[in-house]
Design brief:
Layout (H helix, E strand, L loop, with lengths): L49 E3 L8 H7 L4 H5 L4 E3 L10 H6 L10 E2 L12 E3 L7 E21 L4 E7 L1 E3 L2 E3 L7 E5 L3 E6 L4 E11 L8 E10 L9 E4 L2 H16 L17 H14 L4 H11 L21 H18 L2 H21 L27 E2 H20 L3 H21 L1 E2 L4 E2 L2 E2 L11 H9 L8 H7 L13 H13 L3 H17 L30 H9 L2 E3 L6 E4 L8 E8 L2 E10 L2 E8 L4 E4 L2 E3 L2 E6 L1
Parallel strand pairs: 19-23
Antiparallel strand pairs: 1-2, 3-4, 4-12, 5-10, 5-11, 5-12, 6-9, 6-11, 7-8, 13-20, 14-17, 15-16, 18-19, 20-21, 21-22, 22-25, 23-24
């Protein structure tokens, strides 16, 4: 904001989170004159800012009276006002000091700069500058997450500021506004080492050396390291093919999944670092085929179910002080539970999680099905980072469709556990809901489903590719419309909302597989994830370019919900998919398209499925290793344990 000359009362809402930041700061930028900031409590010796609150919400009367205050006296008399102790303040804002630094025309003396990030016996030697501070720009080569460590020899009082970020282009830095990914270290005299206590995600960093006034001694840096900190995956899975671009896409997708795995899946290593339940549905599938690990998914699914102790639906991100329902995420959780069993044959898990599945189903049917037979809930009802019409209230179409599929998957789980009556009930609910969707949410003129019906009864004018994709994927579409909807998966009329994120495109890919169109899957992967590779990405972006409506292609440059090729390439190119729980029977239904060869390893609970595919004229020659205790179905024929060569 811009301030005119004179006195002003500054009131800031600091309830919004600042990732990894223990302080909230103001930056005052002025060229001349004198600026003074003083406490509204009238104490000249006190820290100039005070805190007011906390409050349960922004609608709280106490919050509103502070927010609308127009004088220091009103703040001073507020019942929730408290002075801020000097001991609880920071002398500088490292993020601001770095981002708004002004370059100076002064020669630098830096010896062995590349020793900073490579294994060799030489120190990087940084001499004091004649003017200003010394700033180094460090590229760690790829996206990382972990703890910074450095070893240095410095004059006492030397300040080391680091600001980490994910992306730069042609010398321009995409600073992580809202994420103060920084630290400040103040050196004692001599050799010392230090490791950060904060886990950070990044690829690049600026390292600013601020020498004490009059210093002549150089700083010697013996390495700036990141101790990689992720879930301990084993690299069992493999994928390679004759297309180098697809190989690179596989690698950045797998790397993304790893960086977004801690004691739970998290959305990203840099910003929230939060277990988002809907993201984790996709991330679970990606981890099965990228690493062969199912333990992390199991933990996440059980943990999410525990949120039902306080909410009617599984919450959007857990554990959390924020009690929030994102309806589609709750329904994707049910779907993920069934998929986990399909990939593992873990009956103990099914018995543990099913009571939560049942509880959520009952809550939805008893409390949130309206007179039209449709799901209607006040919640966060988004699906994609795109301008869909998904208000907090009313009937939102895509989540009605997800609910149909969630009830079908619930029926499968109930049947496995011997609860046939409940299975039949869920299937009846699913059929009734499907009929209500087609009766109330179909637009005959546009030959598509509308995005929503608003709470006041208005039918949404918005038609989105996302809603049509979910309709196809969840078998909502009548049989005579299937061909039309298969076209919608990648080709929609002008004016429709299009897919906005790799997360949503994962569902497009699943729908294309359902349509038997693997060729279009490869086209999408090469186009959208190939774009990331060509831009120098080493991990998968949160959104596609254009969503931010600015110069940068995405906010987060490492988002596990975007790693769909980690699942699609082994599942659809190598063609290895379970037919029975835990891969007791599995199919090998490969697709090479324009590839000359492809090979890989798909881990299963019984062992590794090893597969090599070679194009030979009009045929594909497949070499397949079938693990003990399993049966492979290849070109309609069953093959038991051992090595087999089949021509298709």
């Amino acid at each position: 904001m811009s301030l005119s000359e004179g006195e002003h009362l500054l009131v800031a809402d600091v309830s919004s989170p600042f990732y990894h930041e223990w302080f909230f700061g103001f930056v005052f930028d002025y060229e001349q004159g004198e600026l003074s900031v003083r406490s509204p409590l009238g104490d000249a010796e006190a820290y100039p800012f005070v805190s007011i609150g906390t409050f349960p919400s922004q609608e709280d009367a106490g919050f509103q009276s502070a927010w609308q205050a127009s004088s220091a006296a009103q703040i001073a008399s507020h019942p929730a006002v408290q002075p801020i102790q000097w001991a609880h303040t920071a002398a500088a804002n490292v993020f601001a000091d770095t981002v708004f630094a002004v370059p100076m025309d002064a020669p630098l003396q830096v010896e062995h700069p590349y020793s900073l990030v490579s294994a060799n016996p030489s120190d990087t030697v940084i001499h004091p500058s004649a003017k200003g501070d010394v700033e180094l720009l460090v590229d760690f080569g790829r996206e990382l997450v972990g703890f910074f460590e450095m070893e240095l020899c410095a004059p006492e009082g030397t300040v080391i500021d680091l600001n980490a970020f994910e992306y730069m282009e042609d010398g321009r830095i995409q600073w992580t506004y809202g994420l103060h990914n920084t630290f400040r270290y103040i050196a004692r005299k001599g050799w010392q080492s230090w490791r950060s206590v904060v886990r950070r995600g990044f690829r690049y960093a600026t390292l600013t050396i601020r020498f004490p006034q009059g210093a002549t001694q150089a700083v010697r840096l013996r390495g700036l390291r990141c101790y990689l900190n992720t879930y301990p995956y084993a690299y069992q899975a493999q994928f390679q093919c004759s297309d180098a671009l697809l190989n690179d896409i596989w690698e950045i997708s797998r790397h993304t999944v790893r960086l977004c795995s801690e004691d739970t899946f998290v959305d990203c290593p840099s910003y929230e670092q939060t277990f988002w339940v809907g993201d984790a549905r996709n991330e679970s599938l990606f981890s099965y085929t990228a690493f062969g690990d199912t333990r992390l998914a199991r933990r996440c699914l059980l943990l999410a179910g525990e949120s039902l102790w306080r909410s009617p639906l599984v919450e959007s991100q857990v554990p959390s002080g924020w009690e929030d329902i994102l309806t589609a995420w709750s329904l994707l959780w049910t779907i993920a539970c069934e998929e986990y069993y399909r990939y593992t044959d873990d009956r103990e898990f099914l018995e543990a999680v099913y009571p939560a599945v049942r509880q959520q189903n009952q809550n939805i049917h008893e409390r949130f099905i309206n007179a039209q037979g449709l799901l209607e809930i006040e919640a966060w009802n988004m699906l994609d980072w795109a301008p869909m019409d998904t208000p907090r209230t009313g009937v939102v179409t895509h989540q009605n469709m997800w609910l149909v599929e969630a009830w079908r998957r619930s029926a499968k789980m109930a049947r496995i556990l011997g609860n046939d009556a409940e299975a039949d009930l869920y299937l009846r609910w699913a059929d009734e809901l499907k009929a209500a969707i087609n009766a109330h949410l179909w637009d005959a003129e546009k030959q598509a489903y509308i995005d929503c019906i608003h709470a006041d009864g208005r039918r949404s004018p918005v038609i989105s590719q996302q809603t049509q994709t979910v309709a196809y994927l969840c078998d909502i579409v009548p049989e005579d419309k299937r061909a039309l909807f298969e076209k919608y998966l990648t080709d929609v009329p002008e004016g429709w909302v299009r897919v906005g994120s790799p997360f949503m495109m994962a569902f497009t890919i699943e729908a294309l597989e359902k349509a038997g169109d693997i060729e279009r899957i490869l086209q999408l992967i090469r186009r959208w994830w190939g774009m990331m590779v060509h831009a120098g990405a080493t991990s998968c972006w949160e959104t596609f370019p254009g969503f931010l409506r600015q110069e940068w292609p995405t906010r987060s440059h490492c988002h596990a919900w975007s790693a769909a090729p980690a699942f699609a390439l082994p599942s659809y190119v190598l063609g290895v998919r379970p037919l029975e729980p835990g891969f007791a029977r599995f199919e090998v239904r490969p697709y090479l398209g324009d590839l000359e060869w492809a090979k890989g390893v798909v881990p299963t609970p019984h062992g590794e499925v090893k597969i090599a595919l070679f194009r030979e004229g009009e045929q594909i020659r497949a070499q397949v290793t079938v693990p003990c205790g399993t049966v492979a179905v290849i070109a309609g024929k069953e093959y038991g344990e051992g090595q087999h060569e089949v021509r298709m």
